[in-house]
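C-alpha cells in:
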C-alpha cells in the first residue's frame, strides 16, 4: 500500500500524490488499483470516504456502468436511488460535469438546506457524510462520464475552494492512471479486451460486489463484515459467481475481472 501525507496546501495535490497514482497503476492488478487509488486521493485531500465511477448520460439521468466505494458501506450506492431525484448536485453534474461542486450538507448555507431536501440530509447522515464534493469529466462522445466524490464526516472542516481545485486537478491524472492500469491488465491477458459489461453484467449487484472484492484480495470475513452479511452468504455468492463466469479459482476470477472497466449497473450515481 502506498502512503501519502496530506499536502499543506490542497492545491499542491498534482505535485505529489498524482505521481503515486501511476506508480500504483504499474504495480497493482486493476481491481486493487481502483481501491488503492481511491485511498491515495482521499488521504491526500484529508477525506474519510470516496466513490469513483463511470457511466453514460441518458435523458438527464445517469446509467452507472461501474462504481467503487471507499470507506463507506456499499449500501451507499443502492440507498441513493430513493433520494436521487431530489438531488440538485447530481442534476447539475449531469448537465455540466465541470466545475467541481461541493460544500456542507446541512446548515443555513448547506447544499441541502431546503425543506424539500430532508430525505437527502437523512440519507447522508446515515452514511456519516457532513461535507462532500463531486467532480467529473466527459468521455468519448460527451455522454460518457467519469466522476469522483469525496466525503468528510466532520461538519467543522469544510471542503472549500482549495480542495475543489485540487480535485479538479486530480481528475485528468486519475483518468490517465486508470487507463494505464487497464492497458497493463489487457497486456497480461494477451492483449484481449473484454467488451464493457460482458462479465459483471452477468451477475447480480451483490454478486458483482463480492466478486470484485474477492478478486482484489479480500477474505470471506472482510467481505462479510463490509457487506453486513454472514461469511457463509459470501461463500454461497462466490459459488454462484464461479458458476456464472465459468471459473474455478480465485486466480481465474482475478484474470477475468482484471481487464474490466465496466460492470453491473447502479442507478443513479451515488454521492
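Residues out:
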Amino acid at each position: 500500500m502506498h502512503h501519502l501525507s496530506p499536502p499543506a496546501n490542497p492545491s499542491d495535490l498534482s505535485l505529489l500524490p498524482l505521481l503515486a497514482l501511476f506508480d500504483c497503476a504499474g504495480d497493482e492488478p486493476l481491481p486493487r488499483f481502483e481501491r488503492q487509488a481511491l485511498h491515495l486521493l482521499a488521504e491526500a485531500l484529508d477525506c474519510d470516504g470516496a466513490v469513483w465511477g463511470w457511466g453514460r448520460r441518458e435523458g438527464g439521468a445517469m446509467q452507472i456502468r461501474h462504481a467503487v466505494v471507499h470507506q463507506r458501506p456499499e449500501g451507499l450506492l443502492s440507498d441513493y436511488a430513493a433520494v436521487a431525484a431530489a438531488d440538485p448536485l447530481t442534476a447539475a453534474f449531469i448537465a455540466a460535469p465541470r466545475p467541481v461542486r461541493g460544500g456542507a450538507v446541512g446548515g443555513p448555507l448547506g447544499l441541502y438546506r431546503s425543506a424539500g431536501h430532508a430525505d437527502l440530509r437523512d440519507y447522508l447522515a446515515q452514511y456519516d457524510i457532513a461535507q462532500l464534493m463531486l467532480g467529473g469529466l466527459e468521455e468519448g462522445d460527451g455522454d460518457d462520464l467519469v466522476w469522483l466524490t469525496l466525503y468528510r464526516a466532520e461538519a467543522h472542516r469544510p471542503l472549500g475552494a482549495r480542495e475543489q481545485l485540487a480535485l479538479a486537478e486530480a481528475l485528468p491524472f486519475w483518468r490517465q492512471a486508470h487507463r494505464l492500469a487497464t492497458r497493463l491488465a489487457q497486456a497480461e491477458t494477451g492483449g484481449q479486451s473484454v467488451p464493457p459489461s460482458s462479465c459483471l453484467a452477468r451477475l447480480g449487484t451483490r454478486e458483482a460486489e463480492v466478486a470484485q472484492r474477492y478478486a482484489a484480495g479480500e477474505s470471506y470475513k472482510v467481505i462479510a463484515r463490509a457487506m453486513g452479511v454472514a461469511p457463509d452468504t459470501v461463500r454461497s455468492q462466490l459459488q454462484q459467481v464461479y458458476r456464472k463466469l465459468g471459473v474455478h479459482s480465485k486466480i481465474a476470477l482475478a484474470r477475468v475481472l482484471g481487464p474490466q472497466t465496466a460492470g453491473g449497473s447502479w442507478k443513479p450515481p451515488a454521492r
